[in-house]
Design brief:
The chain is an alpha/beta fold. The chain has one domain: 3-Layer(aba) Sandwich (Rossmann fold), CATH 3.40.50.1360. 27% of the residues lie in helices and 18% in strands. The strands form 2 sheets. A 4-stranded parallel beta sheet has the order 3-2-1-4, with helices on one face. It has a two-stranded antiparallel sheet with strand order 5-6. The longest helix is centred in the first third of the chain and has 10 residues. The chain is globular and about 35 Å long. It catalyses: aldehydo-D-ribose 5-phosphate = D-ribulose 5-phosphate. This is ribose-5-phosphate isomerase. Its EC number is 5.3.1.6.
Length: 97
């Protein structure tokens, strides 16, 4: 399911934008999908070293967060979503220093 979600998120990426990318298995699948349209986006902003390395390995330019004013979309996974649609994300285990 995580792979399907990562690839499905690709339909929301607009050409010419900078894409925000999270951390974890769902984000990794999204990065794989994003690699198929690397020539159509300006690049990405990443929330972790692991995601940055994966983006760069696919030839996607990674901007420093301080270099961009806005993102076209941000894609990440969640560890839990409750009945009020409130998300819990990882507890900071993969924070970038």
């Amino acid at each position: 399911m995580k792979k399907a979600v990562g690839w499905a998120a690709l339909q929301y990426v607009q050409p010419g934008t900078i894409v925000g990318v999270g951390t974890g298995s769902t984000a990794a699948h999204f990065i794989d999908a994003l690699g198929t349209m690397k020539g159509q986006i300006e690049g990405a902003v990443s929330s972790s070293d692991a995601s940055t390395e994966k983006l760069k390995s696919l030839g996607i330019h990674v901007f420093d967060l301080n270099e961009v004013d806005s993102l076209g979309i941000y894609v990440d996974g969640a560890d839990e979503i409750n009945g009020h649609m409130q998300m819990i994300k990882g507890g900071g285990a993969a924070l970038t220093p």
